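User: Predict the complex with S-adenosylmethionine.
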Amino acid sequence: MAQEMCLFLRVFKNNLVIMIKGDSTEYNLLEQWTKDFDCQGFMTAEIGVREGLGSKIMLDNLKNIYLHVGIDPYGNLKYQHYDDTGSYTCDYTDTMRDKLLEDMAVYKGKFRLYNDTDTNFMNDHDFVESKFTFVHFDGPHMTKDVLTESIWFANRTGPKTRFVFDDFPKYNMQLIRDCLKPFGFDIMDQGKNKICLEKQRLVM
Ligand SMILES: C[S@@+](CC[C@H](N)C(=O)[O-])C[C@H]1O[C@@H](n2cnc3c(N)ncnc32)[C@H](O)[C@@H]1O
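Assistant: Here is the predicted structure with S-adenosylmethionine placed in the model:
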């Protein structure tokens, strides 16, 4: 994550106020890019869920979602976060996952947590034939990982699709953008830390 910044949103559940936190920046942009975007009855995904603010914004603003999948192994894994750092653990614990599941219960039937890594998700037969029209890439932040995820999802898009990348200055976004061009994607809008690419034409 580029900068530690927490935002809080209130969700009312059985008259209780619960807080869903985010650790990133520019959630206003994510809100803008999701607002009323028609997912055309396809799936949506967020890679890297943490406490759930990104997924909550997607579920609250996107229209016509079949199912939103949050992909996150939690388990306080030790891994290399960026191209130029070593491996270290953060605070992505199973306790955090359990709280996330409680908080997201309000989205029953629309939200599913895939409690495993991006790699295992992409190798899971259940999703080989799935199609996604909005993806938030906010898990591992190494170029090779984001590139692999991007191409996997680019092969499984709907007619109109948006990809949002968090912390894009931390990896080689130019390379990822170039690789997504043949799939019909190009930059729609960008902030300092988040960038939105849209598939603007149908590639046969
Ligand atoms: C920056 S946080 C995500 C923040 C979240 N999107 C939000 O808006 O609040 C990164 C998350 O990526 C998860 N993560 C780490 N390695 C992963 C992997 N290989 N596949 C999927 N998620 C991973 C971590 O467990 C952590 O919860």
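The first helix runs from residue 27 to 34.
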